[in-house]
Automatic annotation (TrEMBL):
Provenance organism: Frankliniella occidentalis (Western flower thrips)
Designated name of the protein: Zinc finger FYVE domain-containing protein 21 isoform X1
Family matches, as PANTHER family: ARRESTIN DOMAIN-CONTAINING PROTEIN D, ZINC FINGER FYVE DOMAIN-CONTAINING PROTEIN 21
GO molecular function: zinc ion binding
SUPFAM superfamilies given in the database record: FYVE/PHD zinc finger (SSF57903)
Superkingdom in the source lineage: Eukaryota
Amino acid sequence: MTGILKYRTVWQLIRHLSQRLRYSPYKIRAENRTITEQTMEFSSFKRLVRSKSGLRIVPANDDMKSPFLLSEPPWTPDSETNNCTECKSKFGFTLRRHHCRRCGLIYCGQCCATRLPLPRMSFVDPVRMCDRCADRTSNEQDFFERHLKILTSGASFVPDSSYSRADSLLCKLTPDHRYLLFEGMSHEPVDLLLIKSFSVSKDMEILECNEDYNSGGSSMELVFSAAEGDQEKHLKLTTGPDPLRKAGSSWILAMQQALKLIYSIDNS
């Protein structure tokens, strides 16, 4: 653990490894394994914190925070409003104020009665939310319960011929949800926050055969940079042969949902 602590962020560790292991496919594969080990070790360190909103389990190192997480909002002071944000009912002796744990605004009990798990803020127990935030949180549940598991488990893809001669590779998300790893391919990890575009292509012949029109697609192309300000890079991956195609398509769909969650205009 001593050797790890000298790097303040995983990105500094990645840059260090990239400089030392550059130009060697074998060593880049070793780098992928090293990053997986380091992120698993870092992500295993958690701390329990208590705030006005409740108990949360958060990373011990803030630099290791998942890009899918939201910061806990400040609460609107009670003195700033005398009326419910939603129904405009006036607060008084018989009508108490309640704060939505997701947006921090003040509501009456009826407009802030829903309690739901809120994984995007790492709460231990279900928390109170306004109707608007409850709807948004419910829509995100499928990602955390299903899509995120698909991403971390990984799926097999066939790389574009200009990148590798390998028959297939395993693409998966690291345990801290911050990087894409490519096992079986001499390619550096990709930081999710440095992905500039993600496009999907669908092979209609395959879709018509499988009747899977809601799949994520048959191929994907990433445009990303290795670091802030670096030149753009492109990577195209295609789903594998029939036994693996469905898993690959599901992984592409999960990746679409992940990037939509990260880069949503309104993440609150």
